[in-house]
Write a structure and sequence with these properties.
With 259 residues, the protein is of the alpha/beta class. Helices cover 29% and strands 22% of the residues. It has a six-stranded mixed β-sheet with strand order 6-7-10-8-9-11, sandwiched between helices. It has a five-stranded parallel β-sheet with strand order 3-2-4-1-5, with helices on both faces. The radius of gyration is 19 Å and the shape is elongated.
């Protein structure tokens, strides 16, 4: 009887392959099959062995060609075939990555699995832009939220709590709803002139940034015509982007400031 394989849920980080953990790299290099998402960069995927099967199960807003239930079943089938399965997820598998849903199914089916954390997009993009997510005197707390809801329902967030001017707010997957997010935050009391930053394809050679105020950010982000993942950082720390960013001197600048 063939041995049951193993599934490793691996955080692929925000895009730059050098931000992978050593443990993640070793798991990828040993994989028999790699099941990967839309946000996994080509540079990271290229680290898989030449003979490893690659299965794309990516999702886009309002477009889920492979339902989550089918992905769960796929992981179980692949493991039961005796293969070493790496489930690659952008960022960290347990931060807005549905990794916990997959882990629950694997546990229920008796499949052995491991979880390897990854640098989440908030950390990677903020570091690439050279801004801190917390800073004494500017931000004493940090909140991560998703900018879209399950089955594309209306956003139902703690707007009053998120509008704290001493909090850094990081919005994942929020491009489609950034206008609503901006309006709701201002309605809850966050000043419209609060610094904000949009980062597209963060940590990769394709990275682009737009800095503006909270009030003007939706229009500025739309005008940028971003392609690929966009992360938003809202709060006083975003105002440090220019003073701490030396990339303009190093490579001509990847950022556009409208503030």
């Amino acid at each position: 009887m063939q041995d049951v394989g193993r599934v490793t849920l691996v955080g692929a980080g925000p895009g730059d392959p050098e931000l992978l953990t050593i443990k993640a790299l070793k798991a990828i290099e040993r994989a028999d099959v790699v099941v990967y998402d839309r946000l996994v960069s080509e540079e990271v995927l290229a680290l898989a062995p030449a003979g490893a099967a690659r299965i794309y199960v990516g999702k886009q807003p309002s477009h889920h060609p492979v339902p989550q239930s089918e992905i769960n079943d796929l992981l179980v089938r692949l493991a039961r075939s005796g293969r070493r399965v790496v489930r690659l997820k952008g960022g960290d598998p347990f931060i807005f990555g549905r990794g916990s849903e997959e882990a629950a199914v694997l546990a229920e089916q008796g499949i052995t699995f491991d979880v390897i954390p990854g640098i989440t997009s908030a950390q990677g993009c903020a570091a690439s832009a050279r801004i801190p997510l917390t800073h004494r005197g500017l931000a004493h707390s940090l909140r991560f939220v998703t900018g879209h809801c399950r089955e594309d329902l209306d956003l139902d967030l703690d707007w009053d709590g998120l509008a704290d001017p001493q909090t850094t707010l990081v919005v994942y997957m929020g491009m489609a709803n950034i206008g609503q997010i901006s309006r709701r935050l201002m309605a809850a009391g966050l000043p419209g002139d609060t610094p904000a930053l949009a980062i597209n394809n963060g940590t990769t050679p394709r990275e682009r940034r737009v800095r503006d105020t909270l009030a003007a950010l939706p229009a500025a982000a739309r005008a940028a015509r971003f392609e690929g993942p966009v992360l938003f950082i809202v709060g006083k720390v975003a105002g440090l982007a220019d003073s701490l960013d030396t990339s303009a001197e190093e490579d001509g600048t990847r950022a556009a400031s409208h503030a």
